[in-house]
Amino acid sequence: MLFAIASRLYLLAKTSQAGWCGVVDVELVCGAILAIVERSFRSLRAVLESGKWDAPRGLLHALCLGVLRNYKLLVRALRRCGFRGQVRGGRREGWVPIVAAYEAMFRREAVPRERLEKFLPRNVVECLLRLEPRDVVLGVSDPLERLSLLYSIPRWVVERLSRLLPRDRLESVLRAFQEPPPTYIRFNRLVFNDVEAVVEDLKSRGVYAKPDPVLDDVVVVEYMEPGAVGRLPGNLYYIQDRSAALIAHVLGQVEGVVLDSFSAPGGKAGHVAWRNPRVSIVAVDLSRRRLRDEARLLARQGVDRRVVLVEGDARRPPVRRVDAAIVDPDCSSIGRLGHSPETRLFLEQAGPRIIERLSRLQYEGLKAAALTVKKGGVIVYSTCTLTLEENEGVVKRLLDEGLVELVEAAPWVGERSPVLPETQRVYPDVARCGGGYTAKLVRV
């Protein structure tokens, strides 16, 4: 149904040709895409990949990302400049003014004024062209509300982060969410032993990278030729954020059977298999669709014969005794606000009550995994979020039951948790990657 609506909206978007980019009115197309994202809870990338758009996908992706990173600020700017039309509401017509406002405030040198006046009244355009982001929040007395508007992050999320971070550090983290993290590529250690050989091989393929200073099978991309990353062999390379690649390193060298709870889309299972040639993996996920995606990924990486995929509830693992486990459950994804800014829309709609539901799921999944691990076996708990309730709160609850003990979650990409110093918090402003949390436990 959503894509039928999107198709009709897209046909409308095609009525105006030869804009500033020489294609259809990208503002209309981007507005239709953002309406789908808001209404369907699908990722921006998934919506872009599942539709056929005449405008270049790269251009649409960049434009829509910029709007999502600033949508709250842009709505306030529109109202400040006297715009009284519809904004948001899950319809293209509500997103197009926001897209145009983004171009006026953040792309004013690249987009002609007369183009902006196709979508906004002249007086509104003139006002937006004079505005700077901090002008928009003048007069907002509540400091947390001011930060929420300035960085377009739900206020309840800003409030949760303010419990953990002093004001200057809080704003540093929020500012980091406004920029996409660098691209990281991990390589197959079963094939490459020398990172310099990896750097040279990538260079020959049009990807210029340097070794990560901490993770010995990860490189950070400095420059890539157009389309180069998409041509990398799947059995040698995999694009994965630094904070996600940390999980297999914290697990360390293991043998035997590893349980990978909440496994899809399979990045963790593939990484563990590339680093540990003598393991087999039981990968559990509730979604059949996501497991199909995982199967394809593991086949491309050449490790599918060592991974058994199980459709099921990770809170009731299909195995009784394993040598180690990874638990990377569903979470509020606050650490991904830079990489996937559409998460801001989802968190805004869900509200803070989602934390209670998620933390209960996370605790049940972690406890279930711990009960399957042999005594002395390792469990790595990891999330891509930053709330206390979903991280230290979950781990501490299990510690209090005496099932596990903490050990250092090394190597250190992030910083020590002030609550559980053996565990690490990864913040994007320092670690230059998505945010998250990792703990390493041993079954007693």
Automatic annotation (TrEMBL):
PROSITE patterns linked: SAM_MT_RSMB_NOP
Stretches that traverse the bilayer: none
Keywords annotated in UniProt: Methyltransferase, RNA-binding, S-adenosyl-L-methionine, Transferase
Gene Ontology BP annotations: RNA methylation
Pfam families, A to Z: Methyltr_RsmB-F, RsmF-B_ferredox
The SAM-dependent MTase RsmB/NOP-type domain, residue ranges: 173-444
GO molecular function, one term: RNA binding
Superkingdom of origin organism: Archaea
Name of the protein this chain belongs to: Fmu (Sun) domain protein
Organism in which the protein naturally occurs: Pyrolobus fumarii (strain DSM 11204 / 1A)
Source organism phylogeny: Archaea, Thermoproteota, Thermoprotei, Desulfurococcales, Pyrodictiaceae
